[in-house]
Design goal:
The protein has helices spanning 12-15, 184-193; strands spanning 65-67, 72-74, 77-78, 82-85, 88-90, 93-100, 105-107, 110-117, 120-122, 125-132, 137-139, 142-149, 154-156, 159-161, 169-170, 175-176. By secondary structure, the protein is mainly β. The strands form three sheets. Strands 1, 3, 4, 6, 8, 10, 12 and 14 form an eight-stranded parallel β-sheet that branches. It has a six-stranded parallel β-sheet with strand order 2-5-7-9-11-13, with no helix packed on it.
Length: 194
């Protein structure tokens, strides 16, 4: 634009010691700049969860299976990892860890080393470590090693402690066979005969 000089003839624009001329209006930054929209996800990329999400997916590095509210599963589910259920399952669920969320509805047997139940379950529950949360409604029997029941949980059924609630011990000798899990009826009969 225009070159301004001071009394000594030094160019103020070039040295940066003076005020630069104002930029034309079309080149000025607006006072409040809106943030950029989020980047589009590439095909096959893992979904991102906002930091302020109410129920974020597990981020502890585990590969959990998530069954959302809009799913109805009829049949058995077997997993060697963690299962988080918010939907409806009509069948048995077996996994290393099972988390039943407060909107979930399960009709069937639950078998797991660790069970956390917030929702509605109708059926037999077998686990090493079981927690019935305050918003749990359970109609069925429990076979457990450790059981915690929070105030407010609704439980109707029988409850029995067992050193082997999953039926992993073979012939009572203490050798574990993790490939097969005996049905609950077989486990109860074996305990009654002892």
């Amino acid at each position: 634009m225009f070159n301004k000089k001071d009394a000594n003839g030094i160019n103020l624009n070039a040295s940066g010691n003076g005020n630069a001329p104002a930029a034309p209006p079309q080149m000025r930054k607006p006072a409040g700049i809106a943030p950029l929209p989020p980047k589009r996800q590439e095909a096959g990329a893992a979904p991102t969860v906002p930091a302020n999400a109410k129920n974020p997916l597990p981020t502890n590095g585990s590969n959990a299976t998530f069954i959302g509210r809009d799913l109805l599963i009829t049949g058995s589910i077997v997993s060697s990892g963690e299962i988080i259920i918010e939907g409806t399952v009509e069948g048995d669920v077996r996994a290393q860890k099972i988390v039943i969320k407060n909107k979930a509805n399960i009709s069937g047997e639950l078998i797991s080393e660790e069970l956390i139940i917030h929702g509605r379950v109708s059926g037999i529950v077998r686990g090493v470590k079981i927690l019935l949360a305050a918003d749990c409604i359970l109609n069925g029997d429990i076979l457990h090693e450790t059981l915690s029941i929070e105030s407010g949980a609704q439980f109707e059924g029988g409850c029995k402690r067992s050193d082997d609630p999953l039926g992993l011990k073979k012939n009572g000798k203490g050798s574990k066979n993790k490939a097969t899990i005996k049905p609950l009826a077989g486990a109860e009969e074996a305990e009654l005969q002892e």
